[in-house]
Amino acid sequence: MSANLNGGTNCPVCGKENETEGKFCQSCGANMVTSDFQPFEISQTMRFRKNCFSFCCIIFIGIVFYFSLVVAPSVWPAFQAAVVAVLFIVLLGGVSIGGLIYILWVYNDSGVRRLFSISPKGIRIVVPKQPIFEVNWSEFDLIQLYKHAGFHNNHEYRFYFVLNDEVYKEFNIEGSIDFSGLNCRAIVSKMKQYAAKMNKQFVKGRRRKKKY
Question: Do residues 137 and 121 touch, judged by C-beta distance below 8 A?
Answer without folding.
Answer: yes
